[in-house]
Amino acid sequence: MTTTDRLEPLAPLLPGPLDLAGYRLGAPQRAGALTMIPITGPAYPGIVPPRSGLKLTQVAGYGRVELRNGSAHGVAIVPLHIGYIQDAAQNHALCRSAFLAPGAAVMFEDACCVQESQGGYLTERDQWFFVLPVELRARALELRGVEGYSKLWHDIAELNRRYGLPRRGHLEQVLSRKRAVLTQFQSRLEPQPGQLGALFFIGGRFAGLELAPDPVYFAEVWMALVCFAYGAAAWHAEPPPAAGDAAPYDAADLTSLRAELVRDRAARTAEAAGWVAAVPAGDARLQEEERYLGLRLSTVTGAALAGQVVTDGGRPVYASLFARAIA
Fold it and tell me: Which positions fall inside the ARG and Rhodanese-Phosphatase-superfamily-associated domain (predicted)?
């Protein structure tokens, strides 16, 4: 698998006759249990990036949050399952993606509170966004359109229990208290020039496919994806270091070391190619949710994966697809 390979093995993940011409897979990168395979391809202009363009402007009550598109020109695609951590306020995440017209604000009535207690509303201080950990995403997607701020607390509590943390509906036990560990993935895995998407694998198993309209959008959502959406599960899946682990290479000189690195890189690439070929395919269904001019936002539902995609005719613009179950 090289940077010139076509993305054809991913066609089953994107239901419908979509045009994948020009998309390429890059060389895989690995950090512990997490492997990221970069995706490059043609940019789709005119989409507002999420960090510089979107603003959480109001928490009107538990389960009700307002986002505003600060651009006067481009449409915003809200990243699927984006959530916000803010000082002295109740933290929330969204169950769905959406379009925001230029300058428009949308009140999401079906947001989920991810903090079981500790009251408070929005303040401007120390606000940053995340994407829900992959283990919670299928359930959150099922709850789109369902009002009820506490609807994800049970699932969050179970996630905390599996992670060896107190069984409470507090997602900040993972996102905030483990932030120093999780943010290491941001530097250990590096986006490549022109990258606008990625495949994520945890322990060799498919975890998600993320595709952005352009490299700027992807760069702005990168930390939320690699550190929180997939990094949390990878951190949990990381085996403890074994006593007396051998040195990674036996080379005695620089020439031998280079040869071993080449062999190792080729073996890892071949292994990742096998993972890509084994990505679940086939039975996904599409349900259109929203339209904006020529753009269509649809929910993808299948036995092994779920998520949402934005298309323009036969062209993919945005996609966030994830495995329903992470071992």
Answer: 23-305
Give the Cβ contact number of residue 15 at 10 Å.
Answer: 19
pLDDT (0 to 100) of residue 257: 56
Which range marks the domain in which residue 124 is found? Answer: 5-237+269-323
Q: Are 140 and 95 spatial neighbours (Cβ–Cβ below 8 Å)? A: yes
Q: Give percent of the chain above pLDDT 70.
A: 82
Instruction: Please check whether residue 97 is in contact with residue 77, taking contact to mean a CB–CB distance below 8 angstroms.
Output: yes
In a domain, 260, yes or no: no
User: Which of the residues in the chain have pLDDT under 50?
Assistant: 1-7, 120-124
How far, in Å, are 28, 105, 154, 289, 310 from residue 68 at the CA level? 36, 4, 30, 20, 19
What's the pLDDT at 68?
Answer: 96
pLDDT score at 3: 41
> How many structural domains are present in the chain?
1
Amino acid at 71: S
Q: Would residue 29 count as lying in a domain?
A: yes
Is the residue at 293 inside a domain?
yes
- Nearest 5°: CA angle at 217, between 316 and 299? 40
d(CA 90, CA 61): 9
- What local confidence, expressed as pLDDT, does residue 121 receive? 45
Residues 122, 127, 128, 134: is their CA dihedral positive or negative?
negative
Pairing outcome for strands 64-69 and 105-108:
antiparallel
CA dist list (Å): 97 to 28, 79, 290: 28, 6, 10
Say if 83 falls within a structural domain.
yes
Dihedral Cα 258, 263, 265, 267, nearest 10 deg: -170
List % helix, strand, coil for the chain (3-state, nearest 5).
25, 30, 40
- 195 to each of 186, 253, 254, 256, how far by Cα in Å? 15, 35, 31, 32
Which pLDDT belongs to residue 289?
A: 96
Please write the tens of the pLDDT for every residue from 226-248.
999 999 999 999 876 655 555 56
